[in-house]
Write a structure and sequence with these properties.
elongated, about 90 residues, single chain, two-stranded parallel sheet, about 40% helix, mainly alpha
Length: about 90
């Protein structure tokens, strides 16, 4: 699924389910060292090219997404729905 599809789906479900007190939000991670992204990490040329587009000049570890996820699943986000939290080292800047 593309991030554009995820954003559209998050907004649509959030609007549809808000009256039922169901919150729908999304985490949009940048380059993160996971099995899914393994091909990028295995090819130094592709990896170096990807890192140059990230202002922090590094990739994320999976645990760096934990704070954003913790916020979304906690009661402190009780008024948050239809929101995308981007954790990408500044990649969208």
């Amino acid at each position: 699924m593309t991030k554009v599809a995820l954003i559209s789906m998050t907004r649509a479900y959030a609007a549809e389910l808000a009256a039922k007190k169901i919150r729908v939000n999304a985490l949009l991670p940048g380059l993160t060292e996971t099995k899914f992204a393994g091909a990028l990490f295995d090819n130094k040329e592709i990896y170096d090219h990807a890192i140059q587009k990230i202002p922090m000049k590094r990739h994320a570890a999976p645990e760096e997404m934990a704070g954003a996820v913790l916020y979304l699943v906690s009661e402190v986000s009780s008024y948050t729905t239809g929101t995308m939290i981007t954790c990408d080292g500044g990649g969208l800047i």
